[in-house]
Amino acid sequence: MHPGTVNVELDDALFTLPSRYEDRTQVTPIGALLSGQRAVIEGQVQLTEVVYRRRRALLVRLSDGSGFVNLRFFYFSQAQVQGLARGTQLRCFGEARRGPMGLEIVHPEYRRIGAVAEPLEAALTPIYPLTEGATQGRVRQRVDRALRALRSGEQDSADLLPDHVVQALQLPTLRDALQFVHHPPVGTRLEDLAAARNPAQQRLAFEELLAHQLSLQQLKQLIQSDPAGPLADAAGLESRFIAALAFKLTGAQQRVLTEVDLDLAGNRPMMRLVQGDVGCGKTVVAAAAAARAIGSGGQVVLMAPTELLAEQHHRSLQAWFAPLGIDVGLLTGSLPARTRRSTLAAAASGELPLLVGTHALFQEGVELAHLRLAIVDEQHRFGVQQRMQLKDKGRHEGLVPHQLIMTATPIPRTLAMTAYADLDVSVIDELPPGRTPVQTVVIAEEKRAGVVARIHAACKEGRQAYWVCPLIDESEELRCQAAEETAVTLAAALPGIIVDLVHGRMPPRDKARAMQAFKAGLSQVLVATTVIEVGVDVPNASLMVIENAERMGLAQLHQLRGRVGRGAAQSSCVLLYRSPLSPLARARLATIRDSNDGFEIARRDLELRGPGELLGTRQTGLAELRVADLIRDADLLPQVRDTATQLLLENSPCIEPLRRRWIGGAEEYGRVG
Ligand code: ADP
Ligand code: MG
C-alpha cells in the first residue's frame, strides 16, 4: 500500500473506541475494596467450599491480612475446586459487590501466583464494545495493527478537518488522540479519563459531535430547500385572535410569538421548536400562529400524541376560534365513519381551515389542499423521520408547510442545540401570573390510608384530585386493570365522593366523557393511568397522588404534576413510593420534591441518568455516542455548532467523510424519506 492512503478497514478499527477502561495497574488491598469497584486483588485462599443455598455455588474465601472477600462461582469444574485449595495464592480481577456474607466477586478472572512478584499491567486496559462473535483480544489485535500502520505512515487516517478548525481547537492531532484513547500512557488514571479535561478525548469528542451536528443541520437545509408560502395575514386574523383572548399574553409568550411570526412571514419553511415548562401556555402561541396562517388563506393541522389530547385541543381551539367564525375539525380514529368522511372531504377541498387530530393523521393519508402550517404538540414521539415526511406529504403547489413543534420536556440549552440541531429553538420561560407552585411531598406506601383521608377532607371542601396509578407492569392491560381496582377501592374508602376512571383501554368516547365530567366538577376524584400525562387541563384539580413514583422518569413525574397547580388554589402532589428506595431513586424523588422548574429537573435528570433517557426514543443517534459525552463535553457544544455552520457554508469536502466515519450508513437520518 502506498503511504498516505486510507484503508477503510484500518480506519474502522481506529475508530472503534473503548467504551470504558479498567485499572489493572495496581493491587488494591482487600480491606480497602468498595462495593461496585472493579479492581485487582491478591490474597491467600482461606477456605474453599461448595454450597447449596438456593443455587449450587463454589465459594472461595480470600484474605490478604487487610480483610477478606468471597469469590463466588456458579459454573466450575472439579479440577478448578482442586486448584483452589487452602493456602493457594491468587491474583483476581473483578467487580466487588455486597453479598450475603460481606463483599464478594462473582466469577472473577483469576490466576495462581508464585513466590516471585508478577508484573501488573503498566497502563489502563481499554475495553471495547463487542459485536457478535468478537472478543476483547481480537479487537485489541485489530486496533493495534491499525495503530502501527498509522504510526508508520502506511495508514493516513488524516485529519478530515480543515487546518484552521484544528488549530482553533488547540487540541492534540488526530493521530495522537487516537493513540492516547487506545493506549492511555502509563500513569494515566481512571479519573483522568472521566473528567472533562482530557484533551485527547476532547479532540475525538469534538469530531463525533461535529459529525452529528453536520448531519442534523444538513437535514434542516434539506427540509428548507423548498419554499413555503409567506404568511402575511392580510385579514389581520392574528391580532383579532389575540385581542379576543380572555387574558393577556405573558412577555415570554409575546417574545416567542414574535419569533414565530418572523419565520412565518418568510418564504423558507419554519422549523421551530417551542420549549416551555408545563402550563406555560404553549397552545395559545400555536393557536395565534394558526390564526396567522388562516388569515393568509391557508390551512393548518395540529397533531397531538393521544386522542384525549387531540379532543382537548379541539375544544380549546373551538372556544377561541368559533367567535371569529373559524371552523375547527377533529379527526381521530374513533369517529363515526360518516363524520370522518365529511371532515376528510372538507379538509381536502380546502374548505376546513383548521384540523386537529392525532399524530397518525399524516400516516393515514389526510390531504389538505392549502396546508401552510403543521403544528405538532409534544414532539417526544415525533422524530426526524416524521419531520421529513411532513415536508414530503405536505407539499402542495410546490410549497411545503411551516412546522411548529411544541415540547413540554424542557432540556438544557446546550443539549437542545445539539439534539435539535435541525430546529430553531424558542423558549417560553415564564408562567402566566397567579399560579402558586405545587407543593410536593414524598410518602411511603405504608401511609396510604393517611393520604386517602387527606383526599377525603379536600374533596369535602370542593377540591378535586387525580390519583395516578402504578406503572409497575409493562403491559398496558395490567396497568388498566390496576387502575380499575384502585378506583373501586378508593370509591369504597371515600364515602360521599364520586370517583371516576380514565385509562388507555377505555373506548375514546368513555374517556372523553370521564374527562369532561371531571372538568365540569361532576366527579371529584379521577383515577387515571399516565394517559393524563400530557396536556390535560382542569384548573380546579389541585391535588394529585402518584403511586409508585419511584418507578417513573423525572420528566414524566414533572409532566404529571403539571396537571395540578393550574388554578389559583394551593396545589399539592403526593409521591407514594414502595420501600426500600435505592439511593438513585431517593435522589430522583428529592429532585422532584425540591424543584418545580422543568429545566432544573431536566438538568438533574441528565446528571442522574444520562441523555438517552432524557431524549427518549427520539432517533437522533445521540444516545449512542462513541466517545463524546453530552454532559462531560458540554462546553464543546457551542464551538461544535459554529464549526458545523461554517463547514456547511463552505460546502467543505470533509462533511461526507466525517459523517461516514462517525455515523456510518446504517442510521443516516439525514437521508430519510
Ligand atoms: P402547556 O404549555 O403546558 O401546553 P397550556 O397551553 O395547556 O400549557 O396552557 C395552560 C393553561 O394556561 C391553559 O388553561 C391556558 O388557557 C392558560 N393560559 C395560557 N396563557 C395564559 C396567559 N398568558 N395568562 C393566563 N392564562 C394563560
Ligand atoms: Mg400542552
CATH class of one domain: Alpha Beta
Helix percentage range? 25-40%
CATH level-3 fold name of one domain: Rossmann fold
Instruction: Note the gap between the termini.
Output: 39 Å
CATH architecture term of one domain? 3-Layer(aba) Sandwich
CATH superfamily of one domain: P-loop containing nucleotide triphosphate hydrolases
Protein structure class: alpha/beta
Order of strands, main sheet, comes to 11-12-10-13-14-9-15
Question: What average pLDDT do the residues reach?
Answer: 86
How many strands appear in the DSSP assignment?
21
Strand content: 15-25%
Biggest pleated sheet = 7 strands, parallel
Description:
The model is unreliable at about 615-620 and about 665-673 (pLDDT under 50). It contains 24 helices and 21 strands. The protein is of the alpha/beta class. Helix content is about 40%, strand content about 20%. About 40% of the residues are buried. The strands form 4 sheets. The protein has a 7-stranded parallel β-sheet, with helices on both faces. It starts with 7 loop residues before the first helix and ends in an 11-residue tail after the last helix. Adenosine-5'-diphosphate binds near residues 249 and 278. Magnesium ion binds near residues 282 and 377.
Quick rundown:
With 673 residues, the protein is of the alpha/beta class. It binds adenosine-5'-diphosphate and magnesium ion.
Topology:
Elements: H1 8-14, E1 20-22, E2 38-51, E3 57-63, E4 68-73, H2 78-83, E5 89-99, E6 102-106, E7 109-112, E8 125-127, H3 136-152, H4 163-169, H5 174-182, H6 190-194, H7 199-223, H8 237-244, H9 251-265, E9 271-276, H10 282-295, E10 299-304, H11 307-321, E11 328-331, H12 337-349, E12 354-358, H13 360-363, E13 371-377, H14 384-393, E14 402-407, H15 413-419, E15 424-428, E16 439-444, H16 448-460, E17 464-468, H17 476-493, E18 499-502, H18 508-519, E19 525-528, E20 541-546, H19 554-561, E21 572-577, H20 583-594, H21 598-609, H22 611-614, H23 637-650, H24 655-662
Parallel strand pairs: 4-6, 9-14, 9-15, 10-12, 10-13, 11-12, 13-14, 16-21, 17-19, 17-20, 18-19, 20-21
Antiparallel strand pairs: 1-8, 2-3, 2-5, 3-4, 5-6, 5-7
The structure holds adenosine-5'-diphosphate and magnesium ion (MG).
